[in-house]
Amino acid sequence: MVRVNKTTFSGADQQIVLVGGTLIDGRGGEPLADSAIVIQGQRIAEIRSRNGCEFDESARVIDVTGKYVFPGLIDIHIHYSDWMGQLFLSHGVTTVKDLGNDVDWISTISNDIARGKVRGPRILYVGNGLDAPPPNRNTHIGLTDPGVAKRVVQLLYSKGVCAIKVREKITPELLAVVAEESHKLGLPVTGHIKRTDAREAALAGIDGIEHVSGFAQAITEAARERPLDQDDRQVLISDLKAFSLIEPSAAEELVAFLVSRKVTIAPTMPIWWRMATPHRDDFAREDAEYANDPSLAYIPDSIRTLWANSAFYEIDDPLEQTQVELGYSKVRKVVLNHYQSGGDIVAGSDTFFSIPGLSLHRELLLLRDAGLSPLEIISVATLGNAKFLRKEADLGTITSGKLADIVVVNENPLDDIRNTQSVTLVIKDGQVVDTSDDANYFVAQPKPKHSSWLEEHLASEKQKL
């Protein structure tokens, strides 16, 4: 157990000191054993060896001797729902980037969490996804022309988005307009692409590619359009099989090009490649345990039913299974090659109907399977993610002046990356987080069934012309 002195304090001037832990600060250097981390208010005031460390007599001292300390984890690809916040925190995820919710709703939830009205991770968000018409989902916006594309970017910016996301049907021409306008406003552009391949997207100015999408389309004859007769699961399997067609030399050339264009890759393997990993059955058992946890009764029955039954991740056709597994072996090489060639990769779990928080730890495990070291993986999931979000001044490392987002675990994650799951203490914004499950957890603003703010705003402006 973490030992805490009996005197407790609260408020902006509270000083907290973590003493005795081995510090992995997120920058990729050697850990600091027997460390002392002084937190003043929301920020980290000082870091040094415990020997000779001085702090206020009134400080709240937390003894973490024998434990391991690293920055709060950042999940850079999630799809937030109103029931998720508590689970992210209990798994040490203190910041998330949401992709594709109605911008009005997600900005409200983000502000509610920031003001302490509800528990949850810090939420950065992109708002509505941008696509060519007709949009596939009600949270996507179909861009009819360059003028609309520019205006949509401006409206999203006015609602506080941290980035812009484009979708599968976007054309290179519209993507270039979106990227130019976004970059004027200091926003990175990321995308789940298909019609526009990875090479075309890089030339158009994209900053990040989700799911390594558009990669197979750039160097194989993989489909660029979604077949109308396929459901989401069939489309996913088709996309995964396309990676099996990749030739190594073509993949290496494309990786070199993407690295030269400073394009970041988000592998998001826990959902996309789960059916091909050797961990598939282990993940299914974990999901079933969460589904039957009575303290999680507040989670919708439909979600817990999905956790209890992992049929979505099972492929009946042996030939398809073989093709997907071959694709997985090739995508892992792409990810490792991109990283070792000096390109940036980021860690995101694509949390949609998987276990929030736990899904990011699975991404870390799959990055280890791809060949990254535990020290590199922790840096990717903290500093690397913060850099892509343009938030490295505040987040991503345990260094003086940064916001105090800190995770303490019982076991050494450098011995086994799965030890990041042994969370025993979480600090966010300088405050110790209550990570216990609350069966009555709820968000005052439930997720809307339909997206409306952006469309209504565009319609209103059109009427005024």
Blueprint of the fold:
Layout (H helix, E strand, L loop, with lengths): L2 E2 L10 E5 L2 E2 L11 E6 L2 E7 L10 E4 L4 E4 L1 E6 L6 H6 L2 E6 L4 H12 L7 E4 L3 E3 L8 E3 L3 H13 L5 E3 L5 H13 L4 E3 L6 H7 L3 E3 L4 H5 L12 H11 L5 H13 L3 E3 L2 H4 L7 H12 L9 H8 L9 H23 L17 H13 L3 H15 L17 E4 L13 E6 L2 E2 L20 H12 L1
How would you describe this structure in keywords?
465 residues, alpha/beta, TIM Barrel, five-stranded mixed β-sheet, 15 helices, 19 strands, 16% strand, disordered N terminus
Roughly what percent helix?
A: 25-40%
Number of domains: 1
Q: How are the strands ordered across the major sheet?
A: 1-6-2-4-5
The CATH topology name reads TIM Barrel
Q: Helical element count?
A: 15
Class derived from helix and strand content:
alpha/beta
The main β sheet shows up as: 5 strands, mixed
The total strand number stands at: 19
The poorly predicted ranges are 1-11
CATH superfamily: Metal-dependent hydrolases
What's the gyration radius in Å? 22 Å
Q: Outline, from the CA principal axes?
A: globular
Distance between the termini: 64 Å
CATH class: Alpha Beta
Mean of pLDDT = 93
Report the β-strand fraction as a percent range: 15-25%
CATH architecture: Alpha-Beta Barrel
